[in-house]
Amino acid sequence: MSVSLSVLLWLPLAFGLVALVFPVRAVGKVSLLGAVLTLAYAIFALAQFDTGAGLQFVTDEAWIADLGISYKLGIDGLNLFLVLLTALLWVASTLWIELRGIGAHPLVRRRELFFWLALGETAVLGALLAQDLALFVLFFDLMLVPFFFLTGIWGGEQRVAATTKMVIYTLVGSLLMLSAVVATGVLASVQGGQPLTFDLVALAQLGVSEDAQTWIFLFFAAAFLVKMPAFPLHGWMPDAYQNMPLPVLALFSGVLSKVAAYGFLRIVLPLFPEASERFQELVLVVALASILYGSVMAFTTTRVRLILGYSSVAQLGFITLGIFALNGQGAQGALFQAFNHGLVVAPAFFFVALLAARAGGSEDLRDMGGLAFRAPVLAALFLIVALATLAMPGSPNFVGEFLILLGVFQEKIVFAIVASAGVVLAAVYMLRAFIRMMHERTAPEASSLEMRRRDGLVLVPLVAVLLFLAVYPQFALRRSEPAVLAAVGPVRAIIAPPPALELPGFLPGGQVPPGAVPQQVPPGAVPQQVPPGVGP
Q1: What are the extents of the domains in the chain?
Q2: 376-389 and 396-411 helices cross at what angle (nearest 10)?
Q3: How much is the average pLDDT of 86-105?
Q4: C-alpha span between 186 and 189 (Å, rounded)
Q5: Is it true that the peptide bond before 229 is cis, omega within 30 degrees of 0?
């Protein structure tokens, strides 16, 4: 049985549409079934995936032929585990909403709620699977629409202002990216003398002039850094994080920000290698600023949502740092860390919901405490997530950060030394949050109750996947390595080009030493290699 990526892509939305005609009480179950089947199909794709075989399960059909836009989908090591992450977290959030509701709001307008959830999953999967640049932009922008409604209808008291600010920020970035996409297709086709195309493979072969790459790179970088978000383009984040419903925020922080990081690896590095090398230090400075700023802000606030939000800014800074180490180790660590962060931050938001319910509805650290005395299972699961967040040795996050720092040390040692401070700061703010939420004195309105089985249905599978990767990180690293090396290959060819072939009797570059008679090499013959230290 072959894998059809169209089935994987449209399955959630199909169930979301079907659920609209079902009775109101059955809508959530139908939507959940669609999410579960999507996860099962993603696992089937993983089982069929052939490591090292390049882009697989390709669907390539002409869509808008006059504009060179195709409906092209594919999976390789870059997006395989991000697709799995998307499917897994959507099952968790959909199940959470079906069992516990969506925050303080009653489950009204259920059909709309689960439809927007289904559309959001299809949009994210489309952005990850798209192998056509125009198709990627379409799904990348579509991702925002469901979260606009999910926050605007079921969000907090300041949801209108929060969604407005989020849309303005991301819309500006999306418009910049749209103009960069059009320019990339047109300039590459003109330069190569080929018909207009937005196929990523074709664009990489045609190439874009070095001058054009400069401003196109900056436009793409602005769009992706806003979506992550990265400092100083994170202005929309505090309001949005405080007003999104927690199960929606788990998806937004766990998945959508990773699509932006994925865009750097899938699009920017292969298509604009000269610009990537030229602006390497600029992006590394942004990454360092995000790590330090996010870590310090996470330590200074008492709002648990914002602790996790600023922590995400810092973690996305580490991911960006690894990508722009511009070598295989850093990029592979960044991709692995993107997957790990999704597995950590999503259950963390679910734990916030559980602990806030035990603290009189407050999400402030000062109103929590002593909640672990009669809830050892809840405390143990939360401890695993907290230790993974601060990249404790033995966690998959430690592997990701280690590879990132190793890659940066090889290229930019000063940046790596400064970034190491972020590891220490993460331990400070995360341990502070865990100890204050679970131990110390019991707040006046706090109660300590064990988690229920329905909560375990959501949290235990996520923690189990986290523990599996802690024991066997090579499961993901081995499958992603060939695609990661291919993504950074064009930039590595600029930074460290292969040595020129030197013929005996010639100086590097083919020059003949004064007074020397070069050896004659017959046409078509391969010059013999002389071992080091061996005379002629």
Answers
A1: 5-494
A2: 10
A3: 86
A4: 5
A5: yes
